[in-house]
């Protein structure tokens, strides 16, 4: 009893001291904390990167906030953040606002957001157009025979509305229209893959990072659909790194981090980490595409 | 101090302690209901209540038109629940009758604990079985392309409701006075006739209460249906459709919803409707059970 009590009191005291130490450190460092704000698609990715970066550079604290791409870019203009995350290009009106404040933004492409469309390995359909995929998920095309497959009702697999992938697909492929209410909403990429492997009429969308098995090889039990921009145009696979980098693979968009002018040494150090091999490993793990050599060269130029 | 006063003081302290414990459960229930009501009501500032209850479409994040209709979810919940009862009640009552009247006591000693262990299986494990085991079996059995549908949910919920149904039904069958069956047997009825025409009717209210409690368990179950039923938002047209129950909907959306928005409040409103449904079922079970116990005394 008594030992327990002493131990308990000791623990409380230790916790109090530790708490005080932590708060005093953050208070002192808040002024030079790197503020990152913007895209909700990117907030988790950048958060993880910031955590790993801070584990190695404890003297450079970073705070990451969401709010949307627009919020981040406005933050850059209002000087409420050091780095803006944005999953779309900077608009002309935003460039003009920046010019009025004498800001020349520097854009860094840190990852590519993209999706691979998968079907059951027994499905003969090899390619789909961007419009087909949109129509299938809106529920406008309901049978595989309408896109060159067997006479079978299409069985839709998708993510749940709280997932960024769900929103990306809705914005980018469905043209901001509703998903079909018949879509089965799965808990994660792995569940979609599990469903499509077992379902001959199934179709699903997942981040490219999930197409590989534990040994790093492309999974053989599902079929990755090639996508073309319109009927007759050349179709590309999301595994084709060159097509993704050049933008020929249509379901992909670059993810940016921008700074107002030349990044400070601390910010530059973080950007180097993000665009370097360690950061890109996280990109892949989180289900995004990694950046290509063209982007890398551009990023390096922007750092100087 | 006078030892008698001390003892009286201790007695009343103990009594107060146990009274406080009893009151605590009531406070918890009222508190939950109050918070649910308080967080659900703001939803109806923006959603007309009849639209909420009787519209089929639920799509709070739609870029086209935001809709808050939970009819599909209510029907899905009832569909999965009644499907489960359809499977669980005959099996459950059958097992209970077997255990109380037919089984040798040694067999009973083995089966009863097994049934009780069944109640302890975590719902996420049952849901996992639904995905990897029942889903492909149901798909090939019914010729559908996949098995993530209402039927899968029903089968799993039946498994989860069985222990409740079996143990309470068995208790009520055992509580039937021995004189009833002795009289029946003495009049020349067979054991089968005695069980079917005397014991089960005598224990009927207890069996019904058991089924209601099993139903209460099934309606509120979340993880299992979330994993096994596919969660499609469409209005269900049969047991082979993918459905989304009220519990699954709350679990899916509450994690990432922006706080203090209509969407957030509306999820609590779904919870409130669900709470009222389970409350009604449990209350009915309680009333039936009470009536039955009164008659026994």
How is the topology of this model organized?
The complex is a heterodimer of chains A (304) and B (297).
Chain A: H1 2-29, E1 34-38, H2 40-56, E2 62-67, H3 69-77, E3 83-86, H4 92-100, E4 105-114, E5 116-120, E6 127-129, H5 130-138, E7 155-159, H6 164-172, E8 184-186, H7 189-198, E9 202-206, E10 222-224, E11 226-228, H8 241-246, E12 252-260, H9 265-275, H10 277-285, H11 293-303
Parallel strand pairs in A: 1-2, 1-3, 6-11, 7-8, 7-9
Antiparallel strand pairs in A: 3-12, 4-12, 5-9, 5-10
Chain B: H1 3-40, H2 49-54, E1 58-59, E2 67-68, H3 71-102, H4 105-119, H5 123-142, H6 150-174, H7 178-186, H8 191-202, H9 204-220, H10 223-228, H11 246-254, H12 262-296
Antiparallel strand pairs in B: 1-2
Helix pairs in contact in B: 1-12, 3-6, 3-9, 4-6, 5-6, 6-9, 7-8, 9-12, 11-12
Task: Give structural notes.
The complex is a heterodimer of chains A (304) and B (297). By secondary structure, chain A is α/β, with parallel strands linked by helices. Chain A is built from 11 helices and 12 strands. In chain A, helix 6 links the parallel strand 7 and strand 8 (184-186). Chain B is mainly alpha-helical and 297 residues long. Chain B is built from 12 helices and 2 strands; from the N terminus they run H-H-E-E-H-H-H-H-H-H-H-H-H-H. Chain B has a two-stranded antiparallel sheet with strand order 1-2. In chain B, a hairpin with a 7-residue loop joins strand 1 and strand 2. The two termini of chain B are 46 Å apart. Classes of the chains: A alpha/beta (304), B mainly alpha (297). The A-B interface holds A 152-153, 155-156, 160-162, 167, 170-171, 176-178, 180-187, 191, 194-195, 198-202 and B 57, 59-65, 131, 135-136, 139, 145-146, 148, 226-227, 230-235, 242, 244, 252-253, 255-257.
Structural descriptors:
heterodimer; A: 304 residues; alpha/beta; 5-stranded mixed beta sheet; 11 helices; 20% strand; elongated; B: 297 residues; mainly alpha; two-stranded antiparallel sheet; globular
């Amino acid at each position: 009893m008594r030992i327990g009590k002493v131990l308990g009191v000791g623990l409380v005291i230790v916790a109090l001291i530790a708490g005080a130490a932590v708060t005093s450190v953050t208070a002192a460092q808040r002024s030079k904390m790197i503020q990152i704000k913007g895209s909700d698609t990117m907030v988790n990715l950048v958060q993880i990167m910031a955590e790993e970066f801070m584990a190695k550079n404890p003297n450079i604290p970073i705070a990451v906030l969401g709010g949307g791409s627009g919020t981040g870019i406005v933050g850059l203009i209002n000087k409420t953040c050091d780095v803006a995350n944005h999953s779309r290009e900077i608009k002309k009106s935003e460039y003009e606002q920046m010019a009025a404040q004498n800001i020349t933004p520097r854009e860094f492409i840190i990852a590519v957001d993209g999706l691979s469309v998968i079907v059951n390995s027994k499905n003969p359909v090899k390619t789909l157009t961007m419009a087909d995929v949109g129509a299938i998920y809106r529920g406008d095309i309901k049978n595989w025979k309408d896109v060159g497959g067997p006479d079978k009702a299409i069985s839709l697999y998708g993510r749940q509305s709280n997932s960024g992938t769900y929103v990306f697909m809705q914005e980018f492929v469905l043209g901001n229209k509703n998903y079909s209410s018949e879509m089965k909403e799965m808990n994660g990429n792995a569940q979609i893959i599990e469903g499509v492997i077992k379902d001959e009429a199934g179709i699903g969308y997942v981040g490219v990072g999930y197409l590989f098995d534990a040994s790093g090889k492309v999974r053989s039990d599902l079929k990755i659909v090639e996508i073309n921009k319109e009927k007759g145009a050349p179709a590309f696979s999301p595994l084709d790194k060159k097509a993704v980098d050049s933008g020929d693979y249509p379901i992909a968009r670059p993810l940016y981090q921008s700074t107002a002018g030349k990044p400070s040494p601390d910010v530059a150090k973080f950007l180097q980490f993000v665009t370097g091999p360690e950061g890109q490993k996280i990109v892949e793990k989180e289900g995004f595409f990694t950046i290509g050599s063209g982007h890398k060269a551009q990023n390096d130029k922007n750092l100087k | 101090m006078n030892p008698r006063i001390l003892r009286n003081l201790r007695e009343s302290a103990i009594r107060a302690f146990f009274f406080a414990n009893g009151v605590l459960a009531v406070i918890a229930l009222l508190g939950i209901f109050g918070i649910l009501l308080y967080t659900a009501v703001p939803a109806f500032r923006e959603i007309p209540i009849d639209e909420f209850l009787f519209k089929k479409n639920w799509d709070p994040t739609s870029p086209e038109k935001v809709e808050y209709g939970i009819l599909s979810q209510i029907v899905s919940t009832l569909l999965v629940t009644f499907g489960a009862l359809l499977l669980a009640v005959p099996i459950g009552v059958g097992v209970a009758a077997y255990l109380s009247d037919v089984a040798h006591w040694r067999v009973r000693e083995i089966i009863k604990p097994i049934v009780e262990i069944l109640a302890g299986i975590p719902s996420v494990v049952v849901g996992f079985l639904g995905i990897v085991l029942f889903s492909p079996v149901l798909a090939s059995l019914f010729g559908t392309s996949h098995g993530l549908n209402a039927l899968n949910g029903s089968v799993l919920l039946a498994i989860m409701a069985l222990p409740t149904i079996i143990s309470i039904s068995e208790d009520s069958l055992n509580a039937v006075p021995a004189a009833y069956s002795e009289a029946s047997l003495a009049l020349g009825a067979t054991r089968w006739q005695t069980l079917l025409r005397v014991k089960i009717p005598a224990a009927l209210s207890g069996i019904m209460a058991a089924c209601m409690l099993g139903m209460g368990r099934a309606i509120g179950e979340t993880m299992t249906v979330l994993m096994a039923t596919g969660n499609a938002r469409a209005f269900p047209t049969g047991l082979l459709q993918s459905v989304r129950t009220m519990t699954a909907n709350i679990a899916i959306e509450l994690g990432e919803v922006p706080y203090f928005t209509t969407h957030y409040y509306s999820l609590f409103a779904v919870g409130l409707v669900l709470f009222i449904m389970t409350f009604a079922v449990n209350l009915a079970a309680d009333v039936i059970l009470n009536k039955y116990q009164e008659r026994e005394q």
